[in-house]
């Protein structure tokens, strides 16, 4: 059986790194894995998505509309934007974090209110405050690894040797911090 994980966010949030760590762990665990990334205007604060599909045999890397088992959103409006990709039985993990887009910053639109409530009314939703936890750990940049931890726990992937994956793929001076961030993320789900 193939499982599909959709990670979405805004450029600079570490969405791509989280998906690469996830993909590496899944491959090392023996799964057939396909990953695709859409960067869009990521360097300008635009939407970013990574699609990770794994199982015994994965034919295509792209998740179709209505095909994601889990949607993990690094920014709350992105969760709403990508919701149509979730399976009817899927679940959402959303970071309670707001990044204003250029039209909002320019005063052309207002950031919509009530996104988290709307999500919770439509699908099973877990809201996390990864920014708060990352700041408590001493580095806001580990927000992405906290969210990776929520994926691992939500998808039942705890038996993969994540410590090795982290140590092999992040700079040694940040390994311990990232391992703590991973543990925090797993505890939030």
Automatic annotation (TrEMBL):
InterPro entries: IorB_Oxidoreductase (IPR052198), Pyrv/ketoisovalerate_OxRed_cat (IPR019752), Pyrv_flavodox_OxRed_cen (IPR002869)
Keywords for the protein's UniProt record, in alphabetical order: Oxidoreductase
Classification via Pfam families: POR
Domain Pyruvate/ketoisovalerate oxidoreductase catalytic, chain residue ranges per copy: 11-186
Protein name in the entry: Pyruvate/ketoisovalerate oxidoreductase catalytic domain-containing protein
Listed Gene3D superfamilies: Pyruvate-ferredoxin oxidoreductase, PFOR, domain III
Organism: Sporomusa acidovorans (strain ATCC 49682 / DSM 3132 / Mol)
């Amino acid at each position: 059986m193939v499982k599909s994980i959709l990670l979405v966010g805004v450029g600079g949030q570490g969405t791509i790194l989280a998906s690469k760590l996830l993909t590496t762990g899944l491959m090392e665990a023996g799964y057939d894995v396909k990953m695709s990334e859409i960067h869009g205007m990521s360097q300008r604060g635009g939407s970013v998505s990574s699609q990770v599909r794994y199982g015994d045999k994965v034919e295509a890397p792209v998740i179709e509309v209505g095909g994601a088992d889990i949607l993990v959103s690094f920014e709350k409006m992105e969760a709403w934007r990508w919701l149509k990709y979730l399976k009817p039985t899927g679940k959402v993990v959303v970071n309670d974090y707001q990044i204003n887009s250029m039209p909002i910053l320019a005063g052309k639109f207002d950031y919509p209110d009530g996104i988290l409530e709307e999500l919770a009314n439509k699908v099973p939703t877990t809201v996390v405050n990864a920014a708060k936890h990352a700041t408590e750990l001493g580095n806001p940049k580990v927000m992405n690894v906290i969210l990776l931890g929520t994926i691992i726990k939500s998808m039942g992937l705890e038996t993969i040797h994540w410590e090795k994956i982290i140590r092999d793929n992040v700079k040694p001076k940040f390994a311990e911090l990232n391992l703590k961030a991973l543990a925090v993320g797993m505890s939030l789900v």
